[in-house]
Amino acid sequence: MSTLKLGLSRIGYELRLYFRQGDSVFFTFLFPIVMLSIFAVAFSTSGNIGAAPDGSGGISFAAYYLPGMVAAGMLLSGVQNLGVDIAGEKGDGTLKRLGGTPLPVFSYFMGKIGMVMSSSILQVILLLLVARFAFGVELPHDAGKWLTFAWVFLLGVMTSCVLGIALSALPRTGKSATAVVIPIVLLLQFISGVYLSFTQLPGWLQNVASIFPLKWMAQGMRSVFLPADFELAEPGGAWNLGLVAVVMVVWLVAGLVLCKWTFRWIRKDS
What we know:
Layout: H1 2-19, H2 22-42, H3 61-91, H4 94-99, H5 105-135, H6 143-167, H7 177-191, H8 203-209, H9 213-225, H10 241-262
Helix pairs in contact: 1-5, 2-3, 2-5, 3-5, 3-6, 3-7, 3-9, 5-6, 6-9, 6-10, 9-10
């Protein structure tokens, strides 16, 4: 019980610390909202995607990019946020000091993951509100789609969290964390169907992207927010939600193994 209480108190502490850092708030919390707004405004005069030859039907660019922005937010909140944050805490000695206290490792990670989960929920709510009321995006009315959204979101955030924790072991110093983590996250967004249509990428690049979880997170979110006829544009002509779940679970387990193997309160070469 004391471990859980410490973990819950760490969640509050981590949330306060997170929202006091302007760069973190912009580049992880607000970034998907900013990008959705840019795409929606930039292509506002380009007509609808999937429209008939006479211009009727289809969906707006804001609606088309919404699933990708939701998936990107999950990745940024977990992988980028924790990868940079924990590496920085290693570099400035915070983890070393915490390692000398009675704080259990479980409570520490409970605080980090709880912070990411809480901020991700707030982020996606704000993103959906902006999409609906600022850009007129129609949100799903089917309860089944919202159930799909819930499990893709929760599984995606948890997977992103453990991968962010594992990735934090890669930077040699806290100062180099952003230079190591951000390019990886940015590259994954471009090849995973977030900013570019996935099927427009070369076949070999689609195969590479399919190894990583972001492609499947974005695909799961497209199944929620895009009309049914857009399913034909997916590889294989189907949403493949079963495969979406399998790939993310595999990455979740792999991330947990990597966390167990790589995490130390201090670096081995310190």
